[in-house]
Amino acid sequence: MTILENESVKRHTTFGVEAKAQTFIEYSSVSELKSIISSGKLKDRRFMCIGGGSNLLFCRDYDGVLLHSCIMGIDKIAFSDKEVLLSVGAGVVWDDFVSYCVEAGYYGAENLSIIPGEVGASPVQNIGAYGVEAKDIIESVECVDLETGVGRVFTNAECCFGYRDSIFKRADYRRYAVVRVTYRLSLVPRFSLDYGNIKSKLEGVEVNLKNVREAVIAIRESKLPDPKVTGNAGSFFKNPVVAQSKADELLNDYPEMPHFAVDGGVKIPAAWLIEQSGWKGRQLGNAAVDARQPLVLVNYTGKASADEVVALSDTVAADVKAKFGIDIFPEVIFVK
Ligand code: EPU
């Protein structure tokens, strides 16, 4: 177990924005976590779990305890001739898990290649890319209640998954720390290749796990900035879903507007709305809208403060609202 006081969060997040955490605790097992709880270290204090910090923006110093799981291991807990169940530690780097599945011939995780972050965050955020979401392969989520130290397993249905959303984001469920996630993978070849650019990338090729993974990596690397080079937190905004009538109205004025029918309405790429609002590649202070993928806000100079990122986010959202009458909301979590 590691306990650090007054720890910089810059080391534990991908935006490269400075803030301090009063206490930062890292644990390597469920029993270590339970001993932290029973020793009273979290009592009457604010606390929060973080994974790879790839979806967080600390808006100020954190006056509480940040908890980071280093629980490792990928264990095969059941299999048939069609499926395998893997129990994976919350601290495993997400892409190490995806790479393991691809090497082992397990189908289902390959479209989620090189998403930054760790396994523990995958159910919280219901991470997704290229037509697949974590919810499609999650069987159950093993948690510990940080207030009582009692364990609880959430089935897939109990996680209430939505677009970049789950029960773990609700205020009264934030007390659960994810310690392990069980994934259900297929042993029978099964691919999701309907998402536009992945389909075209693999046109005329006999698909297998390795070339799907390679295609996803190539697409992501061609348009998403590497947080090791330029601080960022992936997609900064969610793609808005509007009513059919609103979409029809906009399509009258902008017939070229990309749009996708989804449950509950029409999804419009926030990247397009931001680009049309003139923000693609534009800078405000030390923060900027990425020049290749405008859905991503970047710490352009490496010196951006959280206030500058928030100012940019607010300005971009206000301009999109003024031009299109659509609200766009951050998917990045602002920690205040
Ligand atoms: N677009 C533009 N201008 C641009 C770039 C894109 O207009 O400069 C439009 C295009 O119409 C394009 C559309 O945006 O067809 C969608 O772009 P893309 O396929 O790159 O996906 P996205 O909607 O921008 C979402 C996820 C990504 C995920 C990709 C692929 C969200 C918030 N983001 O982005 O997730 O990798 O789809 O599935 O849903 C993340 O969450 O951090 C993330 C990167």
Any chance you could write out the topology, listing elements then pairs?
Layout: E1 2-8, E2 20-27, H1 30-38, E3 46-50, E4 56-58, E5 62-69, E6 74-79, E7 83-89, H2 94-104, H3 121-125, E8 128-129, E9 132-133, E10 138-145, E11 151-155, E12 176-186, H4 196-201, H5 209-223, E13 231-235, E14 241-242, H6 244-253, E15 260-262, E16 265-267, H7 270-276, E17 283-284, E18 287-289, E19 296-299, H8 306-324, E20 333-335
Parallel strand pairs: 2-5, 3-5, 4-20
Antiparallel strand pairs: 1-2, 6-7, 7-12, 8-9, 10-11, 10-12, 13-19, 14-16, 15-16, 17-18, 18-19
The site of uridine-diphosphate-2(N-acetylglucosaminyl) butyric acid (EPU) has 18 residues, from strand 13 and helix 7.
In brief:
With 336 residues, this protein is α+β, with helices and mostly antiparallel strands. It has helices spanning 30-38, 94-104, 121-125, 196-201, 209-223, 244-253, 270-276, 306-324; strands spanning 2-8, 20-27, 46-50, 56-58, 62-69, 74-79, 83-89, 128-129, 132-133, 138-145, 151-155, 176-186, 231-235, 241-242, 260-262, 265-267, 283-284, 287-289, 296-299, 333-335.
